[in-house]
Write a structure and sequence with these properties.
- By secondary structure, this protein is of the alpha+beta class.
- It is built from 36 helices and 35 strands.
- A hairpin with a 2-residue loop joins β18 and β19.
- The chain is globular and about 120 Å long.
- One of its GO terms (cellular component) is trans-Golgi network.
- Its main location: membrane.
- It is found in: Endomembrane system; Membrane.
Length: 1156
């Protein structure tokens, strides 16, 4: 039954998606299940949706009734009296262009860019004869090259979209029409249709699962095209549709009405009800198959600089226009030989001269700048992708730059915001220790309980169900459980085997919603309590040699608000703590001990409930399940009613090891003056422990907690209110430091302290924010961005980090155990946290240095080139005449000077990658923005002015009184243009040679090749042959050969080049000898430092040892929901088995996991 993809208007809700909630993965494992059988999935379809509020249930879909959806109530006005159905078709269109619209639409999109529009305006001005002194092709050729390259790229991309759309829209599926299934194309599916899918079929629309070939209508889907996750998700049909809709005839008679929320863009939520045969059934996301999924295992189912230069261009043009007005009044109007036939006034001629100089001087901001920047950014992104030292071979995962526009910002990071679990840690959980009835287990012991310094792992050969990868050192606990003498220990592991949402297949492979849950059930399995199977109302486990089946009355799934889960079972001798809980103090002591070892802890509890109490609660539970608005909140309230007054049994301790290289990475980044903030949902003590283990916190730091923050902020605000305002207009407010004592400070706060703390936090070397929600993570990043104006980076691995990743200037995703949602929302992605130091200290720093060097030199060479026209204007009556030949102006930035500076932007490096990591202080210039700012811009400007002065006035002086070898004076305009152009080409190419730090054959070839290309093209376009063919466009016939055969002019070129480069050489020498930078010092001692690096690698010691401090801690349980909704809604992997022991009748609620 189809629900359509709605148009963007008409179905738009009153508000956007709720940023407070994040899409969590339904399944966090990577193992795929094996296929069971060969049948069909029947379902209804839906599509893509604009946001809407959850309370708006105005969307109705009726099965097997196409005419129903054409009724007037489902029509919407599109234009005047023209109406169409609210329900769109199923065909998709992702392409932008067709044969008729490609050229106009592509040009429109390109000219929406300010730079292209600017050069188009210049081209139009050049067509006006009374304004321009430059031919139109000097601007047209570069503009056409840029537009053409961009159009070809867009065309290739759009052709690929055309092919993809055609392929998808013409895919075949089976649709129930006229009482039987018929083959139809995807584009012909309509809302309300019943569709049949088979194994490995793509899902053609958003559809409601009715039934499948698997028991209990279970279906597996892969959602890689939606959220990037390749692990399988479980989906199940309603019990009533599974039982009554198995035959084709039954499906043809199906006439249910679906009422649900309007189409929206939330992939993680769906709320609706199905009205069928006068009964109403709740629907949620677990009943839905979204378009783009695949049925599996179910046989059937740079603008700042440009603006400054443009302002400079306007000022120069205006000044020269005023000069032309004055010159014409005083001189031009009185010289009869300058009369041009136009009787314009002096002011009118000055106005025309202004536009003429706008055209002549436009090369200060050449169009090739934008193309060059894009090429450099693309190349830098490819270098990141190709870096083998950021490749993770265990998962065959290379680093990936998902954007090309932020590489240089990687070299300017001041604040890093990091998740903890899965980002700093491996997110691979191992059951290490536990406490049961006040006694702790997990240290190395013999079977008799004798402690050992170095013990052997438990031998699991006695348990044929054991996972051999599971290691446990306490042989005494195993012996105790096997002996059956300690009832508390037996009930402890029985609880672990029952209270979970793990799914299992025929091969006894567990599919867990979180690594924590999988580790706990696997531990119970190894201790002899093996979870075997489950149905919608029972769960079967093996206890030693016996199989027992327990009736499951309710399964209350975990969520990040309650931070616990519960199961209500019939007859289980067995979670909020009661004040009368036994062993509470001893358990708390054990938790402190576990926390010192940075282990994740979880408490296990139980309570007995009566039949009457359960039945009363069950009625309220069923009412909450069918609520349309705020269903999750209603369910949470009902869950809270039963999850209280619990008895404590014990606690588990799970190890989540740090990733390799995390302490070293954090230490290096701290030396680079990058401040690292850890934002985590864990409790304060736990996060503090991890802070010490990963070297974020050190013993010489003074730790400040949330209570201290509150007091200091209260004092600061009171002082501020009591003091009269002293701030003067235009002056930045100065703040007194919060921490007046010398030394390092660190801040550890919880989510409730996040208001007005930025100034204090930024004074600290380390900040840890605990118990923060995904929204609060994003708020912390936003606060620092807003008030500190710093470049920020967020790094995480899970769906709960997406908000934080998107809020920061740069987002980094780690492809870990929590799926790919963080990666898909990021700008850069890799597999391990340790690669972050290479991304920033190597690639980021190089990218920043290269881009800054490229921009400085690009502006210099264009100032030197363009301002020659300015000096020439003083000798041409400010008449906007040009100092060079037309074709030289056209090709200067395209052919003569672009390649060397482009290669510097791509390949240059002051020191190699090893020394970049060895000396993190090399990163500081990027944070300070010291390599390209106003100062550097004006240095490039004045350097260009100086060189342009020499390029113009040295040849001008040489041409004043000169006699050639043939007795003729070579002081004509064309020879002067050749000499100035030749001097310029030598200067800019030799200048970039002086600025190049890293020489390769390619750089050398580019410099010499650019000079050779200049002379080759110049002699060609000055030849008589090309003048004969195009006499109007090539007017410098013989100018080059005539001028360059004069030794005197070669001497002029050499003098000009020498005078331009000599000051630069002297300044560079003084800087590197008297005022060397850190990079200069490293280069000077490169050999010594490389030897030190080799010695340090041989002597490297481990970074962290456990037990160094006593820190109290408790870890939150998984931040992902489990499969409780699927299980308790009446679907499971297997049907209820026969031949099991009868379910006994008393009611007992089994365990609930909760933090202490």
């Amino acid at each position: 039954m189809s629900r359509p993809r709605a148009d963007s208007e008409g179905s738009q809700g009153s508000r956007g998606p709720d940023d407070e909630e994040m899409p969590y993965s339904d399944d966090e494992t990577d193992d795929e299940l094996e296929p069971p059988s060969d049948e069909a999935v029947q379902e209804p379809a839906v599509g893509e949706h604009p946001p809407v509020g959850p309370s708006e249930m105005g969307w109705k879909v009726k099965a097997n009734d196409r005419a129903y959806h054409q009724l007037p109530e489902f029509q919407k006005k599109v234009f005047l009296c023209i109406k169409k159905s609210r329900y769109s078709g199923n065909a998709i269109k992702t392409y932008k262009y067709n044969v008729l619209t490609f050229i106009p639409l592509n040009l429109y999109e390109q000219f929406k860019r300010a730079a292209n529009l600017y050069f188009l305006t210049l081209l139009i001005l050049q067509i006006i004869p009374s304004i321009t002194t430059l031919p139109w092709y000097t601007t047209l050729i570069p503009l056409v090259v840029v537009l053409g390259v961009t159009a070809i790229k867009d065309l290739v991309d759009d052709l690929a979209r055309h092919r993809m759309d055609k392929e998808i829209n013409n895919r075949k599926t089976e649709v129930l029409l006229d009482g039987r299934f018929q083959t139809a194309k995807w584009r012909n599916i309509q809302v309300g249709d019943v569709v049949r899918l088979k194994k490995n079929d793509f899902i053609p629309a958003d559809i409601l699962l009715l039934s499948s070939s698997n028991p209990n209508s279970l279906c597996y889907v892969e959602t890689a095209e939606l959220d990037g996750e390749t692990n399988l998700k479980f989906r199940m049909g309603l019990r009533v549709t599974d039982e009554r809709l198995q035959e084709e005839r039954q499906l043809a008679d199906f006439d249910a009405l679906i009422e649900c929320e309007e189409p929206n863009n939330r992939l993680d939520k769906f709320t609706g009800t199905m009205l069928w045969q006068r009964e109403r059934y709740p629907l949620d996301l677990d009943n839905m198959l979204l378009r783009g999924c695949t049925v599996r295992n179910t046989d059937v189912a740079t603008d700042w600089s440009s603006s400054q230069i443009f302002a400079l261009l306007i000022l120069i043009a205006a000044g020269l226009a005023i000069g032309h007005t004055y010159w014409y009044e005083q001189i031009g109007s009185k010289a009869w030989y300058l009369y041009d036939g136009d009787n314009y006034s002096a002011s009118h001629r000055g106005f025309l001269s202004f536009w003429g100089y706008i055209i002549v001087l436009n090369t200060m901001v050449p169009i090739s700048l934008y193309v060059s920047v894009e090429v450099i950014r693309l190349g830098q992104s490819k270098f990141i992708n190709w870096d083998l030292q950021m490749y993770f071979p265990e998962k065959d995962t290379p680093a990936k730059a998902r954007t090309t526009t932020l590489n240089e910002q990687l070299g300017q990071i001041e604040y890093i915001f990091s998740d903890k679990t899965g980002t700093l840690t491996q997110n691979i959980m191992q059951f290490k220790k536990c406490t049961i009835s006040g006694r702790s287990y997990g240290d190395s012991t013999t079977a008799e309980g004798v402690s050992l310094d170095r013990g052997r792992p438990v031998d699991w050969s006695w348990n044929r169900y054991a996972d051999n990868k599971f290691q446990f050192m306490d042989n005494f606990l195993v012996a105790t459980v096997r002996s059956g003498k300690d009832k508390d220990a037996m009930e402890f592991f029985k609880l672990l085997s029952l209270c979970h949402t793990v799914m299992v297949d025929e091969d006894m492979v567990y599919q867990a919603a979180s690594p924590d849950e999988g580790a706990l059930v696997t531990a119970a399995r190894n201790f002899g309590y093996v979870f075997l199977s489950r149905t919608q109302d029972s769960i079967t486990i093996r206890e030693g040699d016996r199989e027992n089946t327990y009736g499951m009355l309710a399964l209350l799934d975990f969520n990040s608000d309650r931070k616990r889960m519960s199961i209500i079972c019939r007859h289980c001798d067995l979670r909020r703590l009661s004040p009368n809980s036994r062993h509470k103090d001893t358990t708390q002591t054990a938790l402190d001990s576990f926390a010192n070892e940075t282990l994740r802890t979880l408490c296990l509890c139980y309570k007995d409930i009566s039949q009457d109490e359960y039945e009363s609660w069950s009625r309220r539970h069923k009412e909450a399940q069918v609520v349309l608005a705020n269903r999750e909140e209603a369910l949470d309230r009902v869950y809270e009613e039963i999850e209280k007054d619990l008895m404590l049994i014990g606690a588990t301790a799970i190890e989540d090891k740090l990733q390799d290289g995390v302490p070293e990475t954090i230490a290096k980044l701290a030396k680079a003056d990058i401040k690292i903030w850890v934002l985590t949902g864990d409790k304060k003590e736990t996060a503090e422990n991890i802070g010490y283990s990963c070297s974020l916190l050190t013993d010489d730091m003074q730790i400040h907690y949330g209570e201290d923050v509150n007091e200091k902020l209260r004092v600061r605000q009171t002082t501020r209110r009591s003091e009269p305002p002293r701030r003067q207009p235009g002056r930045k407010r100065t703040t007194e430091p919060f921490f007046t004592q010398p030394g390092k400070n660190a801040l550890i706060i919880t989510g409730g302290w996040l208001i007005d703390f930025v100034d204090m936090a930024c004074e600290c070397e380390a900040v840890i924010c605990c118990r923060v929600t995904p929204k609060q993570k994003a708020n912390v990043v936003s606060l620092v961005k807003k008030y500190k104006k710093a470049v920020t980076l967020s790094i995480g691995d899970g769906a709960n980090d997406v908000n934080m990743i998107k809020t920061a200037d740069i987002g980094v995703g780690i492809s870990g155990q929590e799926g790919m949602q963080a990666v898909m929302s990021s700008d850069y992605a890799f597999a391990q946290f340790r690669y972050l130091q290479r991304l920033l200290l190597v690639h980021g720093r190089w990218s920043y240095i290269r881009m800054c060097k490229f921009l400085r030199f690009f502006f210099f060479k264009n100032f030197a080139f363009t301002l020659v026209h300015f000096w020439y204007s003083f000798f041409s009556g400010y008449s906007s005449q040009i100092a060079y030949e037309d074709w030289f102006i056209t090709l200067y930035n395209l052919c003569y000077s672009s390649l060397p500076v482009l290669l510097v932007g791509l390949l240059d490096q002051d020191v190699n990658d090893k020394l970049s990591l060895r000396f993190p202080k090399l990163y500081l210039p990027g944070q300070q923005g010291s390599l390209f700012n106003y100062k550097n811009f004006f240095i490039s400007l004045f350097h260009g002015i100086f060189v342009s002065l020499l390029i113009f006035f040295i040849p001008y002086g040489a041409f004043l009184q000169t006699m050639g070898q043939d007795g003729e004076a070579p002081s004509d305009y064309q020879s002067f243009a050749v000499v100035t152009a030749s001097s310029l080409i030598f200067i800019v190419n030799l200048q970039i040679s002086l600025d190049t730090s890293y020489w390769t054959f390619v750089n050398c070839f580019a410099v010499l090749g650019s000079i050779a290309i200049y002379f080759g093209i110049m002699f060609d376009i000055h030849s008589a042959g090309i003048h004969v063919i195009f006499p109007a466009y090539f007017t410098f016939t013989g100018a080059a050969s005539n001028a360059l055969r004069q030794p005197y002019l070669w001497l002029t070129i050499v003098l000009t080049v020498g005078m331009s480069l000599l000051p630069v050489i002297c300044i560079q020498f003084l800087h590197k000898t008297i005022w060397p930078s850190v990079g200069d010092k490293v280069q000077r001692n490169r050999k010594k430092y490389e030897q030190d690096l080799e010695r340090e690698e041989r002597e490297k010691a481990p970074a962290f040892q456990r037990g160094r401090r006593s820190r109290r801690s408790a870890y939150a349980f998984s931040h992902s929901r489990g499969y409780a909704d699927l299980i308790s809604s009446g679907r499971s992997i297997r049907r209820k088995p026969t031949g099991r022991p009868a379910v006994q009748q008393s009611i007992r609620e089994v365990p609930q996991a909760e933090n202490i």
